[in-house]
Amino acid sequence: MEVRVSGQFHWMVHVILQKLMSFFSSSGHSLFLSDLGSSAHFVTMATANPTTAEFSREEQRTVIRFLFLEGLKGAEIHRRLVAVLGDNAMCLQAVYKWVEQFKSGRNSVQDAPRSGRPSAVNDDQVAEIGEFVRANRNCTLEDIEVQTSVNRETARQILSERLNMRKLKSQWVPHTLTEDQAKQRVELSSLHLQRARREGELFFSRIVAGDETWVASFEPELPQQLAVWRGNSFGTGQVQLAERVKPKHEFKVMHIVFFDHLGLLLDHAVPRNTSVTAVYYRDILREKLRPAIRKKRPDLLERGVILLHDNARPHVAGVVSSLLASYGWETLDHPPYSPDLSPCDFFLFGKLKAKLRGRRFGTEEAINAATKQALTELAMEGFRDGIFGLQQQWEKCVRTEGRYLES
C-alpha cells in the first residue's frame, strides 16, 4: 500500500515534537529522540507520571496517524497518548475510530464539514444525548461524539444547559475512626514493630497475607470513566435519574488471594452466586491454601505460618479459629477498619486492577484467566515489598497517631 504523507502532515509532526520537547524541558523531565527517518521522530518518556500536556484534537489525530503508519495498534497508541497527556488524551474508542479511518485511506486529521447539520440544539439531539447518558453514566464527551450524531461541543451544551447535568467523580471515603480505634491501630502497630526488630527477617518470612477482592468484567481505564453524570432531571422535571449508578461492568467475580514474600501462594475464584461464609473460608484454608503451602513452601509449615487477614466475620469465626489452632498457625492481630495495614490492599490489589484496567471480559472464565495472568506477571516483579513493607506502614501509623495512610 502506498502511503501519501503531505507537507502539512510533516509540518504538524514537527510542531508536535517541538511542543513535546518544550513541555518536557519546562517540567524538568528528560526526552529521548531516535531518528526514524528524514522527517519523523519517535518520542518516549524517561519518567513516570509527568505533569500532563495539552494537545488539540487535530494534534492528537496527527500523533495517531503517525504511530499508525509506524505499525502500532490502537491499544498501544492510546497507551502512549495517556502516558503523555493523562486525562486530556482521547478515549480508546476514539483512537480505534481514527485508526480505522486511516487504515481505510483517510489522510486528513481535520473534522469533516458538517453541512446540513443545524447549529442550534434541537429536541431530537437532547433526547438522543439523554438516552445515551442514562445508559452510559460513565461516558465521556469523546464517547458521546463517537457513538451519537452529536459533536462534543453540542453535547457539552446539552448536558449543562438543557439537562442540567454535571460530572462527579467517585472516591473511596475511609471509615471515620473513633479515638479507641485509632489508639488500637497505634498499639498493634507498635507491638508488631517491636517483634519485627526482635525477630528480623524471620518474622516477615513467616507471614502469609490473604484477602478477597472483586474483579469486574470492566475496570475503567481513565479518571473520566470513573466519574458519572448526575442531575436532578433531564431538563423537563419529569425523568428523574436513579440515585444508584448502574455499574458499567455487567458482572464481577470474587477472588481469594494469598501470598508471602516469595510470591503467590493461591488464587481462588469463587463461583458466582456463592457466598464466602465461615465454612467456605475454612474449607479454602484446609483444601486449597495448606496444600499450596505444602507444595510451594514446605519449610514454612515447619517454621510456622503467621496468617494475616482482616477481621471480616468469616475470617474470625470459630470454625476458622479452631482449624488454625489445629495446624499450629498463628494469626497476626489486625486492627479493624485498616485496609492500609493489609498487604493485599496497600500493595497487591491496586496493581492487579491496574493490569486489568480498560479491558472488557465477556465471561467468568475470561476474567479468571486474565486475573491469573496478571498475578503471574506481578509475581515475576516480586512480592517482597508487600510483606516487608508492613514495617513502613506500621511506622507511619504510629507516627501519625493512628490516622489513615494515603496509598
Features:
3 domains, two-stranded antiparallel ribbon, 50% helix, alpha/beta, Arc Repressor Mutant, subunit A, 5-stranded mixed sheet, Nucleotidyltransferase, domain 5
Molecular structure report:
With 407 residues, the chain is an alpha/beta fold. The protein folds into three domains: 97 residues, Arc Repressor Mutant, subunit A (Orthogonal Bundle); 41 residues; 193 residues, Ribonuclease H-like superfamily/Ribonuclease H (Nucleotidyltransferase, domain 5). The strands form three sheets. A five-stranded mixed β-sheet has the order 7-6-4-8-9, with helices on both faces. A two-stranded antiparallel sheet has the order 1-2. A two-stranded antiparallel ribbon has the order 3-5. The protein is elongated, with a radius of gyration of 26 Å.
Query: Could you list the spans in which at least 5 consecutive residues all have pLDDT below 50?
Result: 26-52, 233-249
Total count of strands: 9
β content, as a range? 5-15%
Number of helices: 18
Tell me, rounded to a whole number, the average pLDDT.
80
Biggest beta sheet attributes: 5 strands, mixed
CATH architect. name of the largest domain: 2-Layer Sandwich
Side by side, the strands of the main sheet go: 7-6-4-8-9
The CATH first-level class of the largest domain comes to Alpha Beta
**Class derived from helix and strand content:** alpha/beta
**Computed Rg:** 26 Å
**CA distance, first residue to last residue:** 50 Å
Overall form:
elongated
Total tally of structural domains:
3
Tell me the CATH superfamily of the largest domain.
Answer: Ribonuclease H-like superfamily/Ribonuclease H
Would you tell me which CATH topology of the largest domain applies? Answer: Nucleotidyltransferase, domain 5
Helix and strand pattern: HEEHHHHHHEHHEHEEEHHEHHEHHHH
The percent range for helix content is: 40-55%
